[in-house]
Amino acid sequence: MPEPLRSFRADAIVLRHANWGEADRILTLFTREKGKLRVVVKGARRIKSRKAGHVEPFTHVSLLLARGRDLPIVTQVETINAHLPLRESLEHTGYAAYVVELVDRFTYEEESENLPVFRLLAETLSRLDAQQDAWVVIRNYEMRLLDYLGFRPQLFTCANCEREIQPENQFISPSAGGVICPRCGQGLPGLWPVSIEILRYLRHFQRSKFDEAARANPPDSIRREVEKLMQAYFTYLLERSLNTPGFLQKVRQAGE
Hints:
This protein has 256 residues and is an alpha+beta fold.
């Protein structure tokens, strides 16, 4: 049986890092080749480290990794895209943090390659870089991520009776994974009311490619309701609250 290669290359986006020992860092990456992966960067916290600037969160990097006793060790690193515009304001930093937090929470180490999720992550960070409407970018990202991870919500037919949804206010059942029509929803526990206008935008993002999805320009009241609903849905799926929505809310309040 052939021995595994002692080193390998990876195209990766840094999700987060943590200090390790006196001078090292452990990176959590989402890689093109192996999905989520943790690696060690030796000496990354030393002042003269040449690797330190390449391993910040959101950075898209090319790595050469050596197999270590516990975790792979970074021996070479080159920045592909530092995503510097994301660091120019707290709000854009918050959006980027939300994007990587969702991937981090929904994926596990040692799974396998997930090229659609990797591409979605890289494209979304680049769209935020380009100062496109962040609300549209994030909603598109959320819907595509749910698709790729197997959590696509049912928005066009009732998740209970399978009848086509009519143009009227509905309910959403997170446990059923989609919309519940008024007829089925009477008296059922755990349902969230949803207006037909909100549902139209959810459907728009679910069925549209980004260029088409980007045409959406709802009023602020609708934006807030859609964002609140999506974050509640993710919280239900993850069975715990996300960290970044609270940070984003504080940043927005400070800017008002």
